[in-house]
């Protein structure tokens, strides 16, 4: 049996998982939900160190499968390195509608440019004007996350970031990937990373075209995403 470690995007808190951790547990899975604090630089190092401490404190049984949502995907290789250093077996990596790290390392903004040129250009312009991202409101997410309580918790967990965050270099361990990798695509916004995953020979699972919640499907359809995730893990 493996333990599933859920790593939330640094742009939000673990509230972005909604009730999916409970749905996974209902299906018999062992789950560790990270809640990292990386609000001051070096952001990535703080996130990874905090994640390592939390996994150790949770004392998961058996090997771990590291699951990263959205921007957490860029950090999965580094988290995996900490687990191996702790002599814990990493059984796999799952990118759940997530960015895929560049083998030679890059900044977050640089990797976004290779995934979605138009969005990266808009983000670059926003950051150049002194703005931060994300700044979604309750109204912005109402159509994706219909549950008022879950949506408000998600919006309340937002961690808007400036240019220094998006331009921070993210190195990738030279021996990564050291375990099977898979990609679970929830939204069209991650068509690019899904294509990269296929080109690397990874197992790719796509949610139904009309997947409730899109990128935030864990909040809108936790049971459905839990089933898709466990199916993907079984196929790694």
User: How much helix, percentage-wise, in residues?
Assistant: 40-55%
Strand order of the largest sheet: 2-1-3-4-7-8
CATH class equals Alpha Beta
Q: What is the succession of H and E elements?
A: EHEHEHEEHHHHHEEHEHH
- Major sheet description: 6 strands, parallel
Task: Round the mean pLDDT to the nearest integer and report it.
Answer: 96
Strand content: 15-25%
Low-confidence stretches: none
**Number of helix segments?**
11
End-to-end separation in angstroms reads 14 Å
- CATH homolog superfamily: Alpha/Beta hydrolase fold, catalytic domain
Determine Rg (CA atoms, Å): 16 Å
Q: How does the overall form come out from the CA principal axes?
A: globular
CATH topology: Rossmann fold
Strand pairing plus helix content: what structural class?
Answer: alpha/beta
For the secondary structure, the number of strands is 8
CATH architecture field:
3-Layer(aba) Sandwich
Q: What is the count of distinct domains?
A: 1
3D structure, described in words:
With 236 residues, the protein is α/β, with parallel strands linked by helices. It is built from 11 helices and 8 strands. The strands form 2 sheets. Strands 2-1-3-4-7-8 form a 6-stranded parallel sheet, with helices on both faces. α1 (20-26) crosses α11, α2 (43-58) crosses α3 (76-85) and α4 (108-115) runs antiparallel to α5 (117-128). The model has no long low-confidence stretch (mean pLDDT 96).
Features:
6-stranded parallel beta sheet, globular, 236 residues, Rossmann fold, two-stranded antiparallel ribbon, alpha/beta
């Amino acid at each position: 049996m493996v333990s599933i470690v859920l790593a939330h995007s640094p742009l939000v808190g673990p509230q972005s998982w909604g009730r999916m951790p409970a749905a996974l547990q209902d299906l018999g899975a062992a789950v560790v939900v990270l809640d990292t604090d990386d609000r001051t630089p070096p952001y990535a190092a703080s996130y990874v160190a905090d994640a390592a401490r939390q996994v150790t404190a949770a004392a998961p049984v058996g090997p771990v499968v590291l699951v990263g949502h959205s921007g957490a995907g860029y950090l999965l290789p580094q988290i995996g390195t900490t687990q191996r250093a702790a002599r814990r077996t990493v059984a796999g990596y799952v990118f759940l509608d997530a960015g895929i790290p560049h083998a030679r390392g890059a900044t977050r903004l640089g990797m976004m440019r290779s995934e979605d040129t138009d969005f990266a250009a808009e983000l670059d312009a926003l950051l150049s004007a002194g703005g931060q991202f994300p700044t979604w409101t309750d109204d912005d997410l109402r159509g994706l996350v219909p549950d008022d309580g879950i949506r408000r918790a998600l919006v309340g967990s937002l961690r808007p970031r400036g240019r220094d965050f998006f331009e921070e270099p993210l190195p990738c361990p030279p021996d990564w990937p050291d375990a099977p990798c898979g990609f679970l695509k929830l939204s069209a916004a991650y068509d690019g990373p899904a294509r990269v995953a296929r080109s690397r020979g990874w197992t790719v699972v796509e949610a139904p075209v009309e997947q409730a919640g899109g990128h935030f499907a864990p909040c809108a359809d936790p049971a459905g995403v839990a089933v898709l995730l466990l199916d993907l893990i079984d196929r790694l």
